Fold this sequence. Notes:
Belongs to the short-chain dehydrogenases/reductases (SDR) family. The protein is an alpha/beta fold. The protein has helices at 19-39, 65-76, 88-99, 120-132, 162-177, 179-184, 219-240, 267-274, 282-285, 287-294, 296-307, 332-346, 352-357; strands spanning 56-60, 80-85, 110-114, 139-142, 188-193, 247-252, 314-316. Helix 4 (120-132) runs parallel beside helix 5, helix 5 (162-177) packs parallel to helix 7 (219-240) and helix 7 crosses helix 12 (332-346). Mean pLDDT is 92; it is low at 1-10.
Amino acid sequence: MTSSSLVSPLGKENKELGWVEWLRAWYLLICEILFQKLYARHLQNPLPLPSLGGYNCIVTGATSGIGLEIARQLAESGAHVVMAVRNTSAARKIIQKWQAIESYGGSLDIDVMELDLLSLESVVKFSEAWNSSSRPLHSLINNAGIFSMGQPQTFSKDGFETHLQVNHLAPSLLSILLLPSLQKGSPSRIVNVNSLMHRFGVIDSNDMNFTSQNRKFTSAKAYESSKLAEVMFSSVLQKHLPTNAGIYVLCVDPGTVRTNVARDIPKLVQAGYRYLPFLFNAQEGSRSSLFAATDPAVTRYCMKLMENEWPVCAYIASSCRPVNPSREAHNVGPSQSVWERTLEMVGLPPDAVEKLLEGKEIHCRYGI
């Protein structure tokens, strides 16, 4: 398979998803829902992890769902884990509960830092606090995300549509600002928890906020587009990182997981959703992120893609096997547009990555 077979020949943004890609997305989604346990039957549960003593990790959205499982299992394996969360009191209660378990003996090396992804100022403050500690960072796991099913459009205090900010803008800003620490932790990884739903997404880089009349807002469209934007941005970010920086960018699909993402749907539907036998539980859904963050084969795979100048970043399926993201994600021109527009929205200069890796300071509209 060559990259040219997957790239749109004109490199233009598609305002609508082609029917072939739409059918393919539905086919893959249905297969994932019905057969994901079959596809992942070779995996142990929980996923065995190597000894991670001296390994520093940040996990966003770590108080529930797969983020909670990711943080717990990393800490159990000896890593120093920071739960980057909005509700710090809830995180501390979770840690107290874990430390009280006799088998842990209070030995888990886990901390809490405040991070509100609905505030880009909070992202900058978090990054400044971590970087100022001079600790190397080995894995940044951008797990936190939202899907407000069927809800009306809302905006953050920064003026951005909430799916766009939480799922894409805030983790993108966080990833870039933490590059100095990730470089210290080389070889290190940025793991973005994505979704197969990105295959339904289309991007209008001039209207990522869904505020023009070109596209009618729905929560599904906003979620799908934010996840596609995440893959596109990740792919361009990987190209901006020199090989000697030793920082690898991945997106992962956790599968269809039984979490509180269904809290916004009708109660009757929620009841059925929670008892579907083919859904992953949170521990099963955490495996692809843990694999991407710790397995040595992952960095070798990322290096191979970089050497072959592959147009997209590494993408790991819920089976912990590499897969290709959507055709839209391979579209180089729109991916570059998403990159440029994202930097503009989060208030970073075009050369932010290069300057940070050179040890220089940059100015961000939401803080230094």
